[in-house]
UniProtKB/TrEMBL annotation:
It comes from Ramlibacter humi. The chain crosses the membrane at residues 6-29, 163-187. Keywords: Membrane, Transmembrane, Transmembrane helix. One of its GO terms (molecular function) is trehalose-phosphatase activity. It comes from the Bacteria. InterPro entries: Glyco_trans_20 (IPR001830). Belongs to the glycosyltransferase 20 family. GO terms for cellular component: cytosol. This is Trehalose-6-phosphate synthase.
Length: 754
């Protein structure tokens, strides 16, 4: 309707102008026709004169002129001739029909006939006057004045006018119709183009044809400029000096995301409720880098966290909707627990996620195992979490943060049910190269599932690049490498690196910590470590990707190569039990225990072990005290997305002491170059690094630690979440503009207003 009115606004003036032009043109047309008729009448007059000349010569024989009078009277019965006058060669009016004007002389008539406007009114009708010489054999005998009736010309002129007006009106209607059709078509074309442009497809023809080829270069240029601007903006944001903390993240959520609902989905829950002694229920924080990073963000976002309820007493503390407020005693956000049957957990979590995807992505020389039944369970559980997201969503466009390799199919499943949701997926582990990834029998499905995300984040650009190359290899998708955008089946996914981090301790938290000396004393007493010993620590889950075995070999080599450390060095390894149902993990643990025992046998004595293996779960405060007690922290992952242990160690050392030995295969190595970077497979190199750390002068320790601390303080987890959510907000804005344009276009087409 709106388009129609718009077109009327244009068409009405057009019709008015056309009719006006017609009226202006009519007098000109009249004059022209009159002139043509005058010429015709002149010729007709000559014809009449010559055909009458014989009859006139005969009639002139009658001296009284009666014959001539009769002849003229007969002739004027012709409706085209009104009057006739006969003038002598001397200009005397000798005979005239009764209709000839009484007061008109021959001279008057001659003058009139010779003039430009030879018309006059006779008895209320217009006539045209012509004069013709009549000659006989003897020569000129007189002049014939003929007065022709012009009324038929006027009648014709009136007809012509009518035809002309009808023709112009018809023309106007045709022009109007053509204009309307062209306007409709081009409006649709533009709307389609604009929508495509805003969707990011631009006017560039998608795979399979369509689009307007002639506009391709323009559209490409336009989109590329827009993306450049966005990239610049994002770079500006991420390089910005502004400090990120919980308050700034909250402000971002309030302003840029206008308080939109945030839903986090992960397999591991942030707190587990377990049965304690007697009837008590205790709360435990699991050993998980994901939980370490996402929990503080969730406190700031006050959203809903959906996770697998895996604690022994989890069901006892939830309400009837399976929800529990967290963190305990504060209720900053709520956890919605999803229950899995043992069969589901076996297939989805132990099977596909941890025997398939985990080794597939880590390339740590453990073969991935892919079973059809595990894949089925993985798909079914992903669907159950998608249902939970839909159930928890308060609007049709929540911001959903999907976490990790347990949920590769979830983004597309959510997208199908909540097409307007903003889905940020973060892959916490590495992404392998396309060849390694290609061994997964369901590689296409995994990629398609992840491409349901609005934004897909990795810790490093390298992993993002591997993902894009895998898409390139196995799917028919359009990839804009320059802007890291993958378009698949009309949807775009922005692939970006967001290095994860930890929440930097607040001054109050730092003030509440025991001093490093106290921590050292306490640890020494607890484990019986002599006070003159130097202490190295490792804090990991009992996982083959963490390089614990390689680390032990390096400790053994250190004691061989640098015997001065024998009897003066202790290595404390916290190894939280993990995925122990799996044979690979049980065998790994047994192997570690055997190697530790061998080293202790070689270089220690009962009660004076060199390697102290602590295979229990440790709460974050215990781990923090261990970091503060240590001289060296060993992080020797064989492959790690980021690794947050090294960042936690740095954050705990407010005394600026201690040395970090860090694997170059952990994502964190790119951010923390002041650590002693090592290749964990190279035992000699790691042994040398440990020695170097042990003898490092205090000044150098301080300098390195101060730099490391300032990096981690700035690139904290609020910046990680803030950057992702800022990108999400930008994306949502773009989507909203696009929707508005689309709505406008549809209204234009259907004629609705609003
Ligand atoms: C890694 C994964 C996390 C996982 C954690 C602990 O950090 O990226 O998703 O939570 O390991 O593993 P678990 O299987 O015990 O949750």
């Amino acid at each position: 309707m709106r388009t129609f009115r718009l077109q009327l606004r244009f068409l009405l003036p057009l019709v008015v102008v056309l009719v006006g032009a017609a009226y202006l043109a009519l007098p000109i047309v009249d004059q022209l026709t009159l002139r043509w008729f005058a010429r015709d009448l002149g010729l007709r007059g000559s014809l009449v004169a010559s055909s009458l000349s014989e009859s006139i010569s005969d009639a002139l024989q009658d001296p009284k002129g009666r014959k001539l009078q009769q002849l003229f009277n007969r002739v004027v019965e012709d409706e085209r001739l009104v009057a006739i006058g006969w003038c002598s060669p001397l200009g005397e009016l000798l005979v005239r029909t009764p209709t000839f004007p009484r007061d008109m002389s021959c001279a008057d008539a001659e003058r009139l006939a010779a003039g430009a406007d030879a018309n006059l009114l006779v008895r209320g009708g217009r006539v045209h006057v012509t004069a013709h010489e009549v000659t006989a054999e003897s020569g000129p005998v007189g002049r014939l004045i003929l007065m022709h009736d012009l009324s038929f010309i006027e009648r014709r002129s009136l007809d012509t006018r009518r035809y002309l007006i009808a023709m112009i009106a018809g023309l106007g209607v045709i022009i109007a119709l053509v204009t309307m059709i062209v306007a409709q078509l081009s409006w649709r074309g533009w709307m389609k183009g604009t929508r495509a442009l805003l969707r990011g497809e631009g006017l560039v023809r998608p795979l399979g044809g369509g689009g307007s080829p002639e506009l391709e270069p323009l559209a490409m240029e336009l989109r590329s400029r827009l993306r450049d601007l966005e990239d610049e903006y994002r770079r500006g944001q991420s390089n910005g000096d502004a400090h990120w903390d919980a308050q700034r993240l909250q402000a971002l959520l309030r302003t840029q995301l206008r308080g939109d609902q945030v839903i986090v989905v992960s397999n591991r829950e942030p707190y587990l409720h377990e049965h304690g002694e007697g009837d008590t229920v205790i709360v435990r924080r699991p050993a998980s880098g994901l939980v370490t990073a996402v929990e503080p963000v969730m406190r700031a976002c006050s959203g809903t966290w959906i996770a697998h309820g895996s604690g022994g007493a989890d069901r006892e503390v939830v309400d009837r909707h399976d929800r529990v407020p967290l963190p305990p005693g504060r209720s900053d956000y709520r956890l919605r627990r999803v229950w899995l049957t043992p069969k589901e957990e076996q297939g989805y979590y132990y099977g596909f996620a941890n025997e398939g995807m985990w080794p597939l992505c880590h390339v740590a020389h453990v073969r991935p195992v892919f079973r059809e039944s595990d894949w089925e369970a993985y798909r079914a559980v992903n669907q159950r979490f998608a249902d939970a997201v839909v159930a928890e969503a308060r609007s049709d466009d929540p911001v959903v943060l999907v976490q990790d390799y347990h949920f590769a199919l979830l983004p597309a499943m959510i997208r199908r049910r909540l097409p307007r949701a903003t889905i940020l997926t973060f892959w916490h582990i590495p992404w392998p190269n396309p060849e390694s990834f290609g061994i997964c029998p369901w590689r296409e499905e995994i990629l398609q599932g992840l491409l349901g995300s609005t934004i897909l984040g990795f810790h490093t650009r390298f992993h993002g690049k591997n993902f894009i190359e895998s898409v390139d290899r196995y799917l028919e998708a359009r990839i804009e490498h320059e802007h890291s955008v993958v378009s698949y089946r009309g949807e775009e996914t922005f692939v970006e690196a967001y290095p994860i981090s930890i929440a930097w301790p607040t001054p109050e938290e730092e003030a509440a910590k025991p001093s490093p000396a106290e921590c050292r004393r306490e640890l020494g007493e607890r484990l019986g470590i002599p006070s003159d010993h130097r202490i190295a620590v490792g804090v990991d889950r009992f996982d083959y990707t963490k390089g614990i075995l390689e680390r032990l070999h390096a400790v053994e080599r250190l004691l061989e190569k640098y015997p001065q450390w024998q009897g003066r060095f202790t290595f404390v390894q916290v190894a939280a039990p993990t995925r122990a149902v799996l044979e690979e993990y049980r065998a790994f643990r047994a192997r570690i225990e055997a190697v530790a025992a061998r080293i202790n046998e070689r270089f220690g004595a009962p009660g004076k072990e060199v390697v102290r293996l602590l295979p229990q779960h440790h709460e974050p405060d215990d781990v923090d005290r261990l970091y503060r007690a240590a001289d060296v922290c060993l992080v020797t992952s064989l492959h790690d997305g980021m690794n947050l242990v090294c960042k936690e160690f740095v954050a705990s050392r407010d005394d600026e002491r201690g040395v970090l030995v860090l694997s170059r295969f952990a994502g964190a190595a790119r951010e923390l170059p002041e650590a002693l970077i090592v290749n964990p497979y190279h035992v000699e190199e790691v042994a040398d690094a440990i020695h170097r750390a042990l003898v490092m002068p205090v000044a150098e320790q301080r300098e390195r630690m101060a730099n490391l601390r300032s990096s981690v303080r700035e690139d904290n987890v609020y910046r990680w979440a803030g950057r992702m959510l800022t990108d999400a907000a930008r994306w949502r804005l773009r989507e909203r503009v696009s929707e508005r344009v689309q709505r406008h276009g549809e209204q234009g087409r259907t004629g609705t207003t609003g």
